[in-house]
Amino acid sequence: MSTASAARREIPEATVARLPLYLRALASLESRGVDVVSSEELAEAAGVRSAGLRKDLSHLGSYGVRGVGYDVARLSEEISRELGLQHDWAVAIIGMGNLGHALAAYGGFATRGFSVRWLVDEDPAIIGTEIAGLRVIDFAELARQAPETIIAVLATPPHAAQQAADRAIALGVRSILNFAPCVITVPDGVEVRKVDLATELQILAFHEQRGRDEFDDVAEGRR
């Protein structure tokens, strides 16, 4: 993600977080041969409100054509440019347990502007093995191979996440996607996005329980 570009345009963080949703919806529309889409149709495809979508896109300077809508290919290009997806970003997945294996085999990275080039682990039993067509290396080899710009994906156990993050940052990593179920501390200038599957399930459980309670209340009222 082009943080500098977002800051330059003063795009709110909440808007930046929704841009990938719009991009995914546009890709689906483009694959179906749709050339022009209204804000209502795009909002429905992205799962947001149309007024919010129009406000978000206005931060990009994209307002569409009144009575016509948005040019799908052009808007997709604008969002891709704002997100910094005009070229592939190099990715290193750190931690080759079950989750690391699954992420390495995930084909969606390549279609969204990310190239997984390194799989990293410190377990001698895993280093040198091949996963999803890539040889697992250690941090020392990553230091020799990695370019200046790299995005790290942490898939380590929680007890190893901080050390893995520290070592990645020491190599110049400034963007981290953290799948480990813990909070990591990073210096200023390093961006961390956390993916916590258990937390998301707990939120779903909350809504599921609330729905059941409301159903029970309605049922009680009918008796």
UniProtKB/TrEMBL annotation:
This is Redox-sensing transcriptional repressor Rex. It comes from Flexivirga caeni. HAMAP family: Rex. Keywords: Cytoplasm, DNA-binding, NAD, Repressor, Transcription, Transcription regulation. Coiled coil: none annotated. GO terms for cellular component: cytoplasm. InterPro entries: CoA-bd, NAD(P)-bd_dom_sf, Rex_actinobacterial-type, Rex_DNA-bd_C_dom, Tscrpt_rep_Rex, WH-like_DNA-bd_sf, WH_DNA-bd_sf. SUPFAM superfamilies: NAD(P)-binding Rossmann-fold domains, Winged helix' DNA-binding domain. Homodimer. It comes from the Bacteria. The lineage of its organism: Bacteria, Bacillati, Actinomycetota, Actinomycetes, Micrococcales. SMART domains: CoA_binding. Residues 21-60 bind DNA. GO terms for molecular function: DNA binding; DNA-binding transcription factor activity. PANTHER family: REDOX-SENSING TRANSCRIPTIONAL REPRESSOR REX, REDOX-SENSING TRANSCRIPTIONAL REPRESSOR REX 1. Modulates transcription in response to changes in cellular NADH/NAD(+) redox state. It is found in: Cytoplasm. Pfam families: CoA_binding, Put_DNA-bind_N. NAD(+) binds at G95, M96, G97, N98, L99, G100. The gene is rex.
